[in-house]
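It is time I had a proper look at our fold encoding. Can you supply me with one protein entry, sequence and fold together? It will help me judge whether the discrete encoding reads sensibly. Leave the record below and I will have a look:
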Amino acid sequence: MVGATRRKQTAQPARVARSTGRAARSGATRARGKIGFGRCRYLGSVMLKTLLIAGLFGGIITAVWYFNPQEKLQQFAHRPIKQVQVEGAFQFISSEVLQRQIELYVKDSFLELELGDLKQKLEQNPWIDSVAIARVWPDRLIVRVVEQQPIAQWGKKGFLNMRGDIVEVEKTTKIQALPLLQGDDRYAQEIMGQYLRVGKLLAQQDLVLAAVELDDTRAWTLRLQSGITIKLGRERLWEKLQYLLTAKSGELGKDFHKIQLVDMRYPSGFAVTWKSAEANHYVAGG
């Protein structure tokens, strides 16, 4: 009995071992099941992305085929310009005339128009200082024009602008009212600068400068709006003018309007020639 009991006890581990083997096979099966499910999810995700990308490309191809963007772009490129808007403050040229001139140039379509060529053509007008052109979608053109600003007449050629540039134009009544500056073209900016400085000085005693001339000997001559001519010579211009204005503030002032010519080419004084031949010859200084 004891021996039989021992045999039964020794046989039990074998059953446990077979039971353990079945459990291991069951775990392996479950692991294979999990791996297979994960692989299916991955493959499904890849297929879904592939379908989405394919659908996207298909939509793009369909849109290109249906809408034909090249044709649409060509339609916009050949769209005519329907409105030309001219902006600026005009005193010497007419905005209406300028707009008609622009419309003659604007023969190309909205995108094909060469703005640089149009700008260059417009700036050939001597009365125009600068031009800026802009497209406004879909069919409008804005042209901003800045006119020249004449400061004074320049001999018989035209006028000087704000920068002292010589602009050659035909005389107009508006330009003829401006002061007259004369001299060699090389000295245009110097003469304009002298005109501005001397004009401010004379304005302190209500004298208006009408003309400035620099001759070939570089001698300066001024003419006032009242008709008085002042010959300054080549040197000490500012000193001589101060001296004349001091004399005008004194005894000379009451008869200043009777003067025809003031000759200040003397070393330390000036001589006066009167409009009336009966007036005495006035000499200041020595």
